[in-house]
Amino acid sequence: MNLFDLTGKTAVIIGGNSTLGGAMAVALGGHGADVAIVGRNQEKCEQVVKQIEEVGGNAKSFSADATSVEDLRAVLADVLAWTGRVDVLMNCPGKNSATPFFDITMEEWDSIMDVNLKSVVLACQVFGKHMVEKGEGGSIINISSVSSEPPLSKVFTYSASKAAVNNVTKFLAREFAPSRVRVNAIIPGFFPAEQNRKILSPERVASIMSHTPMNRFGEASELQGAAVYLASERASGFVTGTLLRVDGGFGAMTI
């Protein structure tokens, strides 16, 4: 028995055109899932589709604003028309900022909260409701951050949004458990990606390394195992409400 075989399953990856989302999408596709790559930048979505096809998987891109419930409902309808099912939802959208606390405007606050938190809630409402009502179980995987607990310096709004994602994850794990829909979050450590490179000054990199026992950044491919594990009901059927760290030991470090 292959614990990680996702053949016959359909995975919807919101923000699947991002660096980390794309890597995890390729892993799910490589293990047999049909993968819907959802994002606004269709050129990047198509690049991920091609990568999935190169490992023998089946994928299709869908255009949507993750903060729009209308867009997400349209994607659900389109995915059901494509494969007839949704078994896995992964929420990967992310927006960051290093604005000092006293300079944060409510416009910036709302923008980051919309992308990092509102999108997760909306996707769980739209796709989670489908999973719950269909009654065949499912897996929701939210992408959190090491900044969620404890909060990191310089990224106040981002940290607050990711702490809320952890709370939403645990709340929905409890709510959806009777329907066998599992809800977990992955807490990645430091994986240099497009959205965070601008705040990685030499001083901040040195600080990160001093707090990461493995003394290096993570590679996007190192999130793939966690994604496949949480997506597979055979592998993680009794796992829900979990915050799974993939952080090189960052969460175990004090002084």
Automatic annotation (TrEMBL):
Any one Gene Ontology BP term: bile acid metabolic process
GO molecular function, one term: oxidoreductase activity, acting on the CH-OH group of donors, NAD or NADP as acceptor
Pfam families: adh_short_C2
Protein keywords: Oxidoreductase
Family, similarity comment: Belongs to the short-chain dehydrogenases/reductases (SDR) family.
Record's protein name: Gluconate 5-dehydrogenase
Naturally occurring in which organism (per UniProt): Paenibacillus flagellatus
